[in-house]
Amino acid sequence: GDSVTQMEGPVTLSEEAFLTINCTYTATGYPSLFWYVQYPGEGLQLLLKATKADDKGSNKGFEATYRKETTSFHLEKGSVQVSDSAVYFCALRPPLGGNKLVFGAGTILRVKS
Amino acid sequence: DTAVSQTPKYLVTQMGNDKSIKCEQNLGHDTMYWYKQDSKKFLKIMFSYNNKELIINETVPNRFSPKSPDKAHLNLHINSLELGDSAVYFCASSQNLASQETQYFGPGTRLLVL
């Protein structure tokens, strides 16, 4: 079945460090791919998305590129801030099947000042 | 204005009780969802409704019964609560079932079963 695998956390970085959170997926066909962010005590917010191979999603300094050849959608940011501390979820939406999202396990990011 | 709202935010109850969580969206969306997030932060879809009709039911125990009185509301009723039901429940909505539509999430309801 469809699944998403994320790197385990927590990831702890100093402010202004470079961030990579790995995400790989297994799916039939061509899914849409997403990164959602959950700040402490809040619900999930869409961070960025990509709907076809080689698309790059970007928002708030975060980027991720849909790589079909490696079935990956790694999240990157050049310089993290303390306010980026949150849980980051990679997710896919299968091309068929009622618009459900399949989430990875989430990666906790902690940024220290 | 809150796009997707849930009530209550916190719910503490005893095993065996019956409880409901309400969800409302003011985005004019056709499709609504319930997700469960367990203690390890793992998120999994439970149900989705489109125009008040059940679309997805991910082998959730029949103690869980979603009810959609209209397109703007999707409530979750849970009978005979068990310890394992303790989790954060998120409601979400999207414009429709089309594959390009973003899902918008509510703030979550933190359920603790004692």
Give a description of the structure:
The complex is a heterodimer of chains A (113) and B (114). By secondary structure, chain A is mainly beta. Helices cover 0% and strands 50% of the residues of chain A. Chain A has no helices and 12 strands. Chain B has 114 residues and is mainly beta. Chain B contains no helices and 11 strands. The relative contact order of chain B is 0.34. The model of chain B has no long low-confidence stretch (mean pLDDT 91).
Number of DSSP strand runs of chain A: 12
Shape of chain A: globular
Number of helical stretches of at least 4 residues of chain B: 0
> How do the SSEs of chain B run, as a string of H and E?
EEEEEEEEEEE
Spans of chain B with pLDDT under 50 lasting ≥5 residues? none
Distance between the termini of chain B: 34 Å
- Identify the overall geometry of chain B: globular
Helix- and strand-based class of chain B? mainly beta
Number of helices of chain A: 0
How big is the Rg of chain B? 13 Å
For the sheet with most strands of chain B, the description reads:
7 strands, mixed
What's the total count of β strands of chain B? 11
Query: In which range does the helix fraction of chain B lie?
Result: under 10%
Alpha-beta content class of chain A? mainly beta
Rg from Cα of chain A = 13 Å
Determine the N-to-C terminus distance of chain A.
41 Å
Please state the oligomeric state of the protein chains shown. Answer: heterodimer
Which series of helices and strands of chain A comes N to C? EEEEEEEEEEEE
Percent in strands of chain A? over 45%
Mean pLDDT value of chain A? 92
